[in-house]
């Protein structure tokens, strides 16, 4: 868990930096080339959760998710960071921001355009739904826009779910 505590913020910040605007076209504010361009506020690195916060987040999960390896989950979540952020106030990208995903009705993250299939999924995200989803989104919900093939290893899914609970619950 110590590795998670020391690099959680850096991983989130790296995901945000990697998905910034292209440098081939300068940003525009619609006022011409010489007008000042307002920049988005700099991303802040969230404080790493305290060990007791990690333990409390894990304890709130049902078995087997409450035994997940948060460090391995963080490493596996690197695959997800190409499309998702998980920090409070983070942007939607190709996929929605996952902060606060536990307990949220599927297809309802603010500001994200979901497929009709996801909007009508009818479930609320919990560990079991996330596990099914991470095993293969297209087989779990035909018609989803998510093209991720899935995590075939059940232990990796448990670990990602544990990491997500810790990283998105503050």
Shape, please?
A: globular
Q: How many discrete domains?
A: 1
Q: Which architecture name does CATH use?
A: Orthogonal Bundle
User: Biggest β-sheet: count, sense, barrel?
Assistant: none
Q: Runs with pLDDT <50, length 5+?
A: 2-44
Integer-rounded radius of gyration = 17 Å
> How many DSSP E strands?
0
Report how far apart the termini are. 17 Å
H/E series:
HHHHHHH
What is the arithmetic mean of pLDDT?
Answer: 80
Level of helix content? 25-40%
CATH superfamily annotation: Cytochrome c-like domain
Task: Kindly describe this structure.
The protein is mainly alpha-helical and about 170 residues long. It has one domain: Cytochrome Bc1 Complex, Chain D, domain 2. The chain has helices at about 1-20, 50-60, 70-75, 115-120, 125-135, 135-140, 155-165. Helix 3 (about 70-75) packs across helix 7 (about 155-165) and helix 5 (about 125-135) crosses helix 7. The chain is globular, with a radius of gyration of 17 Å.
Short summary of the structure?
With 170 residues, the chain is mostly helical. It has helices spanning 2-18, 51-59, 70-77, 116-119, 127-135, 137-140, 154-167.
List keywords for this structure.
170 residues, mainly alpha, Cytochrome Bc1 Complex, Chain D, domain 2, globular, disordered N terminus
